[in-house]
Design brief:
The chain is built from twelve helices and 23 strands. A hairpin with a 7-residue loop joins strand 16 and strand 17. By secondary structure, the chain is an alpha+beta fold. The strands form five sheets. Strands 9, 11, 12, 13, 14, 16, 17, 18 and 19 form a nine-stranded antiparallel sheet that branches. Strands 1-2-6-3-7-21 form a six-stranded mixed sheet, with helices on one face.
Length: 486
């Protein structure tokens, strides 16, 4: 399967991507991929350093005749989002990604692919090892932990980088040049609750919400995809309004930056009301599936008899939990008044975990306007505090403000039109790019982001377009030939 990928063009880029994807690289567990990248740089005889937080920097001198050009920092992140389908047996901590070719696309078998941002890393690796590609002085910056806090970019100190231009290779549409992005903050609500004994003569059921598209909680947040946590909460809310339902546990969603695809809950209800409950539940399922039939045609909601503990959440806390999750905003909160069609502020209710006396709710709030980000986060905080939760903010990172005087933007605009005979889209994105953070310590660095077309990032449906990788690689080589002089 790996050989099939390695035979794609450009072969050296795909070879490096396959090598990278053989190395487990979950966020916050990047030790193996850091060692892999350090070994890669040192074997090439290039200056290779690791900073105090684990970012890897590899420097390569300019090829003859290019010494007069500005130094270029090429930047991508080493970690990847680890998501898999429930029925996929896979251990991200020890296994490499299983890839396959599907027409003009490369996909993974039931897991995320890691094209975000592995294709950027692979392209940089190819430039570093090439002896035939002319280029100015290059500085490769491979950051860690972009997906779960951007702690690599945050921990990079000023004065380490030498580049005057930064090319971030983490944009996911090949006709788009990004010159700005949203900032974000993690919102986490938690509380304990008393477990009580369920009603006598009760029966247990497992509710499963599956088949949703999921996707990137920034880039895809405007698409109207279903959120498994909100769907499950609505089912439970409606059920408890009509029947004496008792919750044993809830487990929905996963990572903050992924729209939740799946959720399950275990409930108990009196045997005497089983038939009526099942009839009403079926109607509720039909209603929600009808509402989402266009965007989520594969949505399934199943009710399965099961064995379960007779310890359940007490009624008072159960009421507060369901109401608070119902009230918590999910999806687009505001559109930008400055950039057409850009989501300004949003929230993803990413994770709901209720089990054995503990509640944890995890959200990711994003905005290109810092005050709006704070406003929405405070609204969530107030909502969950009314339910008796302790709420903390963490992982706060800034957005990236576009520069109107960007020389590198002008270079990319000209080269794109020359190569492809059309104008690219110049945009800000509603995702977290590391440029905003890096710009705090390197305010004079001229930055831009671009990359190949990747769909379904942060979900097991992730795929990268083969022809787009070829286009991206051609564009990158063209850019390096036209870097401004010092």
């Amino acid at each position: 399967m790996s050989q099939e990928i390695r035979n794609l063009e450009p072969k050296l880029v795909w070879k490096n991507f396959a090598d990278l994807n053989a190395v487990p690289r979950p966020s916050k567990k990047e030790e193996r991929v850091i060692a892999f990248m350090v070994d890669f740089g040192k074997k090439l005889g290039l200056e290779t350093i690791t900073d105090k937080v684990g970012n890897v920097i590899i420097r390569k001198p300019a090829t003859p005749g290019m010494e007069h050009k500005k130094c270029v920092t090429l930047q991508s992140h080493l970690d990847m989002v680890h998501q898999k389908n429930t029925d996929t047996v896979f251990d991200f901590d020890v296994e490499g990604i299983a890839m396959f070719v599907d027409g003009d696309w490369v996909r993974a078998k039931g897991t995320t692919l890691g094209a975000d941002n592995g294709l950027g890393v692979a392209a940089i690796m190819t430039l570093l090892e090439s002896t035939a590609i002319p280029h100015p002085e290059l500085e490769a910056l491979f950051t860690i932990d972009e997906e779960t806090g951007m702690t690599g970019a945050m921990g990079l100190e000023g004065g380490i980088l030498k580049g005057e231009i930064l090319l971030n290779l983490d944009t996911e549409e090949d006709d788009e040049l990004d010159i700005g992005c949203a900032g974000g903050v993690d919102v986490t609500a938690s509380r304990s609750y008393e477990e009580v004994t369920a009603f006598p003569d009760s029966i247990a059921y497992r509710i499963e919400v599956k088949g949703l598209q999921g996707g990137h909680s920034g880039i895809d947040i405007h698409r109207g995809y279903g959120n498994a946590n909100k769907i499950m909460n609505r089912l439970l809310f409606n059920a408890t309004e009509a029947f004496p339902i008792e919750i044993v546990e809830i487990n929905g969603g996963g990572l903050r930056n992924a729209i939740p695809r799946e959720s399950y809950a275990i409930i108990r209800l009196p045997v005497a009301q089983e038939a009526m409950f099942k009839a009403e539940f079926k109607l509720d399922c039909s209603t929600q599936k009808e509402e989402l039939k266009v965007m989520e045609p594969e949505l399934t909601i199943d009710l399965i008899a099961t064995e379960a503990s007779d310890q359940v959440m007490n009624k008072e806390v159960q009421l507060l939990l369901l109401r608070s999750v119902y009230a918590a905003h999910n999806g687009v909160y505001a559109m930008s008044a400055v950039v057409s069609d850009l989501v300004e502020t949003s929230n993803n209710v990413a994770r709901v975990l209720v089990k054995e006396g503990a509640i944890k709710i995890m959200c990711l709030t994003r905005s290109s306007v810092n005050s709006a980000k704070t406003d929405l986060a405070n609204g969530l905080k107030a909502t969950f505090e009314l339910a008796g939760c302790k709420v903390i903010f963490s992982g706060d990172y800034p957005g990236w403000t576009p520069r109107s005087d960007s020389d590198i933007l002008n270079v990319l605009l000209t080269r794109y039109e020359t190569l492809f005979h059309e104008k690219p889209k110049v945009a800000a994105c509603h995702a977290g790019l590391e440029c905003g953070i890096l710009g705090q310590n390197y305010p004079e660095m001229d930055m831009i982001s671009f990359g190949p077309t990747i769909e379904g990032a942060h979900s097991p449906d992730e795929r990268v377009q083969i022809s787009s990788v070829q286009k991206f690689w051609r564009f990158l080589l063209e850019i390096l030939q036209h870097i401004p002089n010092k």
